Amino acid sequence: MVDIRDEDALDAVFASTRFDAVIHFAGLKAVGESVQKPLFYYDHNIAGTINLLKVMAAHECKKLMAEEICRDIYRSDSEWRIILLRYFNPVGAHPSGYLGEDPRGVPNNLMPYVQQVAVGRRPSVTIFGNNYATKDGTGLRFSHLLRTLLPGVQVRDYIHVLDLAEGHIAALRKLFDSSSNIGCEPYNLGTGKGTSVLEIVNAFEKASGKKIPLVIGQRRPGDAEILFAGTGKAERELNWKAKYGITEMCRDQWNWASKNPYGYGSPDSTKQNGSNSH
To answer: What EC number(s) does the entry state (predicted)?
Structure first.
């Protein structure tokens, strides 16, 4: 394992093995932290990606799947074949319950945080703001108190990890299709439907049979109100479409969590940090 900001270390990896294509996941994406530490994020996500592209070009590996904008690379060298996969919140787990998400420290994403509350590792979920201009009535499925407090919360697109894996396979097939002049193309992966924080909590409560206590916090700088993907292009050109909805995502996440309440660790190895916000 190497840091993509270390060009010499990357070069040594590419010199030791021939790679047909690269899937680039080595980026940071926590919204709150990115607002607090913008240079830290630029260094990892931009400078690191530039290093990766330079080393790939030096070793004639010019098939790339990344989330960064790479059109200028293709315009300068048409041998590159680049697919940009855009997606927001991968969730769920393998249906077997043996493979799932196990964040280090305090989870930065909603679903694993809700999961840890459900298994008793954390006391509550704190929501980042309840005054977004999103659909009214998302609190109608909850208590009278929540109907009063939560008229509008953030809406996001979520995607099951199995659907996401299939999306990457479809993209790789596209890259290696000799009849396809791929150039540099972006594709959105998701369900194409927005789901609010409260709807996620409600679905997880149904899947787990557990009550998820909620606390209302302040809005977080940098957070958008509504983000979800139009997936028509991926459906047409990659022959890919999400198969699973929020119900299946929560079902599989809970199956993993209930079988592995402390992830891949143990109660002694898991730090019980305080509440986080979403």
So the answer is: 5.1.3.2
pTM, two decimal places:
0.76
Tokens of 206: 């149904």
d(CA 136, CA 153): 9
Burial of 92-129, coded b for 16+ CB within 10 Å and e otherwise, reads bbeeeeeebbbeeeebbbbbbbbbbbbbebbeebbbbb
Q: What is the pLDDT of residue 66?
A: 64
Contact indicator for 260, 96 with CB cutoff of 8 Å: no
Q: Please tell me the predicted confidence (pLDDT) of residue 170.
A: 96
Q: Give all domains of the chain, ordered by start, each with its CATH number.
A: 1-80 (3.40.50.720), 83-269 (3.90.25.10)
Non-local CB neighbours of 35 within 8 Å, separated by 6+ positions = 220, 221, 222
Say how far apart CA 194 and CA 1 lie, in whole Å.
36
pLDDT at residue 136 in the model: 31
